[in-house]
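Just scan my protein:

——
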Amino acid sequence: MTATVRLEAQGPVVTMVLDRPERMNAMSAQMSRDMHDALAELSTSGARALVVRGEGTAFSAGADLHSLDDDIDLDRAVAVREYVMGWSKHILALRALPMPSIAAVEGPAYGGGFSLALACDIVVAATTARFNTQYVNIGINPDLGSSWTLPRAVGPAQARYLMLRGNEISGTEAHRIGLVAEVTEPGRAIVRATELARELADRSATSVASIRARLESAAGASLEDAMAAEADGIATAFASPDFRRALASFREERRRS
């Protein structure tokens, strides 16, 4: 069977491609297995940045409702839970990768596709991208962590507005409310996401990893605990080769000026 997720390496940047264009990259049991393998490979790849995109005209239409009966025994709650948790573990693995991730959204990012894009560190979208939480429209609650990530991206009021209405918004509107970091012309989201990935790949890997860790842990921490974690991270970073090189370069520039 052809893999539904593939990896494309370009130097220090790897692109993870959702590759079911005939189904708008809808999420199936096979895609879940393929994503598990792709994320495991990424974790030891040595890549410095990751781009996530969909093949064809969509990022991802979310769960493949056409194959759901084949993928899961819908009458067994334990089977449904295990299936959803399998996808949830992919989100945790994505966020735990030793590299930043950038979602490049063209076309629909619905339901689980919406949640997958939001799980990335940065989202870049074309003006014509279409975002929809979708869950309320099919009678279920959010999954893949979007009940946690969405309020942190756009605030609790806007998250309730999007989740409870299940309405579609454009890439332009998603950028306005803070869901998307940058918006591009149609067809340019992957280009811009790759440019950003190369930029991040050139940054100090130690610093990028520490920043991502601090932002992740601070979401559930008190201000006091967040500042203590920051101090611990800086104490470690000051001994790193990256910081020592940056410090030496700064001092050399000051000496010449």
About this structure: The mean pLDDT is 93. The radius of gyration is 19 Å.
